[in-house]
Design a protein that fits this description.
Elements (H helix, E strand, L loop, with lengths): L5 H21 L19 E7 L5 E14 L1 H10 L7 H10 L1 H4 L4 E6 L6 E5 L6 E5 L4 E9 L5
Antiparallel strand pairs: 1-2, 2-6, 3-4, 4-5
Length: 154
């Protein structure tokens, strides 16, 4: 059995006080205010939902556009840019999977980012469960167009 000293008790007391402080910070109630936003949707487009910043504030709303085109990663990015849109990034792909599982089940689609481990590959999203993985850029997959609506401050 170890000997208990005053120094040991003070150390343990400081540790427990830090745990209590950490717990109290987590238990503070917060609220999120949703501002009224009018989001213009082009014909056939659908609102996928909000994308939030790291601090929890609204960054933008993601809009899925109606048309799509299959092709290589480069041709899909050119197609979406030519429409004034973007190819969805990995985070947006996850939102599309959650918002429109039936749409995503129609086939795998290219995502915006290149695959970090191999510059000949890019990220794509599978159609089954929405898994994301790297694939050679020359493979033909769906190219879907999204746009980002940022509500203005009035």
């Amino acid at each position: 059995m170890s000997v208990v000293t005053l120094e040991h008790i003070k150390t343990e007391q400081a540790r427990v006080a830090a745990l209590i402080e950490q717990y109290e910070k987590r238990s503070i109630t917060t609220e999120y205010v949703v501002e009224r936003a009018v989001i213009p949707l082009p014909a056939g487009a659908r609102l996928a939902g909000p994308i939030f910043k790291e601090d929890g504030s609204l960054d933008y709303y993601l809009i899925l556009h109606a048309d799509e085109q299959s092709g290589s990663h480069d041709s899909v990015k050119a197609y979406t840019a030519g429409r004034g849109c973007k190819t969805p990034n990995k985070r947006e792909g996850r939102l599309l999977q959650a918002a429109f599982p039936e749409f995503c089940a129609e086939g795998s689609m290219w995502l915006e980012e290149e695959y970090e481990e191999d510059s000949a590959c890019a990220w794509c999203q599978g159609y089954g469960y929405g898994h994301q993985y790297g694939l050679h850029k020359s493979v033909e997959l769906r190219g879907v167009a999204v746009s980002r609506f940022i509500p203005s401050v009035i």
